[in-house]
Specification:
Blueprint: H1 3-16, H2 21-41, H3 47-68, H4 74-93, H5 95-99, E1 104-109, E2 114-120, H6 122-128, H7 130-137, H8 149-154, H9 156-182
Antiparallel strand pairs: 1-2
Helix pairs in contact: 2-3, 3-4, 4-9, 6-9
């Protein structure tokens, strides 16, 4: 590289950025401290950790916007970010995917690798999601094992599993739709 060009770059940096060097170093150290626990726990093999990094960033950004109120939509943007954080937690913990299990009691026999349902109340679970159940009965949701409408109506557990899976998918789609619609305006 040309010596004159490097000298000009250094002079420009010194005129415009050098006076903020101490602030940049201080801000960088604060960032290292804020991010250390998240990065320390990060692993490269699972989507959980991708969500964890995104969740941490959204929480920091939401707190900053809510505290500093930097533009007219700051409070609303912070609310949407925190909604995204909640949706990320739902994805990380598979909350909708596992919700139907709360409506049954089972015992697992690890020797024979079987699950025995002791009691179930899948009707109550299905009643919580009438639109999803109607979509399932209308054939608008994919049924595992290609069961018929009557078989699904009689197999409440399978219907509950399908609806739980659909709810989990819908929450993931909502998360990414909110991100897609808002992410570029959150930083202004």
């Amino acid at each position: 590289m040309n010596v004159q060009l490097m000298t000009n770059k250094f002079i420009n940096w010194f005129k415009h950025d050098a006076k903020y060097l101490h602030l940049n170093v201080m801000y960088g150290v604060k960032n290292l401290i804020k991010w250390f626990p998240t990065i320390w726990k990060n692993r490269d093999w699972d989507h959980y950790y991708i969500y964890d990094i995104l969740k941490h960033k959204l929480e920091l950004q939401a707190n900053y916007l809510a505290k500093h109120d930097v533009h007219t939509r700051s409070q609303r943007d912070a609310e949407v970010m925190l909604l995204c954080v909640r949706l990320i937690e739902i994805q990380q913990e598979d909350l909708y995917e596992m919700e139907y299990l709360e409506y049954s009691e089972s015992e697992i026999d690890f020797d024979r690798i079987t699950i025995n349902v002791i009691s179930e109340n899948y009707d109550e679970y299905l009643a919580r999601y009438p639109r999803q159940f109607k979509k399932l009965m209308d054939g608008k949701l994919t049924a595992f094992g290609c069961k018929t409408k009557q078989e699904l109506y009689n197999d409440k557990q399978m219907a509950s599993i399908i609806i739980a899976h659909e709810n989990q998918t819908r929450s993931r789609k909502l998360l990414f739709k909110l991100l897609e619609q808002n992410i570029e305006t959150w930083w202004h």
